[in-house]
What does this fold into?
Amino acid sequence: FVAELTEFVHAWDGVVSVDVPARTDDTFPASLINTSRYDLRAFAEASDYLALMAYDEYNRYRPSGPTASQQWTEDSLHWLMRYTDPHQVLLGVPYYSRIWDPEDLGRPMTARIGTVVDLAESNPRTFDPAFGIDRVDLEDGRYLWAEDYENLATRIEFARRSGVAGTAAWRLGFDTPEVWEIVEASLP
It folds into this structure.
């Protein structure tokens, strides 16, 4: 299917990327998604890019932690590059964080990057060395790990240093003018 779709899209001068879940190894359930059913080499051969969805390391099934710790992001990228050329990979970056309520870890709230920045500026913030990202403690006892503008710039720079084709994001509509300034500043 992907090969046929790519042929059709290329006829219209389009580009095809296949989104793939982040993993750090080939065991199941190291990820909650059984990617053994994904033929990554075939997807890579049939499409222009593989977009690594390097987010939701922690979610309602695996609480609580950052949307994507730096080490997990790096490990996931290295795992995917075993299956394809780095120049065909887009590193997915989150434009959001999860807000965790210790009373209900199974239902984290999503906060867009602009909200995350506002919360991080108005609440106590400390570096969490276990995850390599700042944790923000909110007044009501909830907390989040700050996927903010600084973190976004760090991820984009990591993608550049890694030699991948670029970045992809989740999700449009969660972006802000500051996000686009960071993206534009990273372009060659």
Q: What stands out?
A: The chain has a mean pLDDT of 93. Residues 74 and 132 are 12 Å apart (CA to CA).
